[in-house]
Design goal:
By secondary structure, the protein is mostly helical. It is built from ten helices and no strands. Helix 4 crosses helix 5.
Length: 270
């Protein structure tokens, strides 16, 4: 039942059955899955407010442009004076929206369906994941979450007794970000050529320097599992801190944006 039990959990428990360490494996898998849930919830909570606020902003602006501004059009025309450029622009935009509202809605829906279909393809998903990593603040959080998940997975499987040649395909398969998965696949190929793990990672900027250095230390000292687990914990802590900062900044930014849009319309009417 792969839709319920992750591949890495199954492999870890299989090793636990063979070695008699089921209790240890179960605890590690439980801890891994709990942290996965916490990470997903933090990302969803960070995105929930801007999505709701953005929807409200669109509705408010649409109501002002379609219903409020036209009510003042007759008054402005009766004045017989030339309107300021800003007011003329707003009135023209209002007329355009009222005359083409149905076409615009159909266009937006069609564009949304087309975008959703494209992002379901392999190339589309890759470009979407690449775009997400470039978003200010959010991209850094996503990168930290993916790196911490990768480090924790490697540590879990390495502790279970799997060799790196078997660990890397499983970690790549379980990676949700296509850019990260591609980098991990390239690391695996270089590792099979005898370059180790840290040297191939250093070739890809998506792997942060601290991760590369700690992996190198783990390879040299024979403590890769503990070294890379320390990286996972560090990245998780940094990711949670940045998520909290993002959640605290988003309401202020959205309030400024909505106030600016409504204020611009109000000033044009005055």
């Amino acid at each position: 039942h792969p839709q319920v039990f992750p591949v890495m959990a199954c492999r870890s428990l299989g090793i636990g059955e063979q070695t008699g360490g089921m209790e240890t494996m179960l605890r590690q898998v439980a801890d891994y899955m709990e942290r996965e849930i916490v990470t997903k919830k933090s990302i969803k909570s960070a995105l929930r407010y801007p999505m709701i606020a953005g929807g409200v902003a669109i509705v408010v602006v649409a109501v002002l442009m379609i219903f409020v501004l036209p009510a003042f059009a007759g008054l402005y025309n009766d004045l017989g004076e030339e309107l300021p450029a800003l007011t003329q622009a707003m009135m023209s935009a209002s007329d355009f929206l009222r005359e083409n509202l149905l076409y615009l809605l159909v266009g937006v829906i069609a564009a949304g369906v087309a975008a959703a279909g494209y992002f379901k393809t392999t190339a589309g998903r890759y470009h979407l994941d690449k775009l997400i990593l470039k978003i200010p603040l959010m991209g850094r959080i996503q990168q930290l979450n993916e790196l911490s998940r990768t480090c924790r997975s490697i540590s879990l499987l390495y502790t279970a007794g799997l060799p790196l040649t078997e660990i890397m395909p499983l970690v790549t398969q379980g990676c949700s970000n296509r850019v990260m998965a591609e980098a991990l696949d390239n690391v695996q190929k270089d590792m099979l050529r005898g370059e180790g793990l840290s040297r191939p990672m250093a070739k890809h900027p998506i792997f942060l320097p601290m991760m590369v250095q700690m992996v190198k230390v783990g390879e040299e000292t024979g403590s890769l599992d503990s070294s890379i687990m320390a990286v996972a914990q560090n990245f998780e802590a940094e990711g949670q801190e940045k998520t909290k900062s993002l959640i605290s900044v988003i309401p202020t930014v959205m309030t400024i944006i909505i106030a600016g849009m409504v204020g611009l319309i109000a000033v044009s009417m005055v």
